[in-house]
Amino acid sequence: MPQEADAQQVVEPGTVAFWTDGDSLALPYGPTPISRGGECRLAGPCNVLGALEGDAQVLRTVRSGDPIRVERAGPVEPVERVSGV
Q1: Is 76 a member of any domain?
Q2: Alpha-carbon distance 33 to 71, whole Å?
Q3: Structurally, how many domains does the chain consist of?
């Protein structure tokens, strides 16, 4: 999946994003080691796919290697993208 023109590095907690450089999902729940202040700064720009349902803080309990399951919560609704904003 190529990186989209509107890929974001700083996102809200609970954002579901795809990190194209690492071929991985990014599921931020709070500040990262490279954050400035309380922001959620990802390792690099990511394609934003959606948002988690519920409290993203539950992800604090996930450790490296723990299995997780990501499911689409409902029908996909079209998103209007605006260029140059």
Answers
A1: no
A2: 27
A3: 1
Residue with structure tokens 């450089």?
21
DSSP string, 48-63: EEEE-SS-GGGGGG--
Confidence at 77, pLDDT banded by 50, 70, 90: low
Tell me if 64 is assigned to some domain. Answer: no
Give the pLDDT confidence of 36-46 residue by residue, as tens digits.
999 999 999 99
Neighbouring residues of 47: CB distance < 8 A, sequence distance ≥ 6: 1, 3, 4, 7, 17, 18, 20
Enter the pTM of the model: 0.78
- For the chain, how far is it from start to end, CA to CA, in angstroms? 23
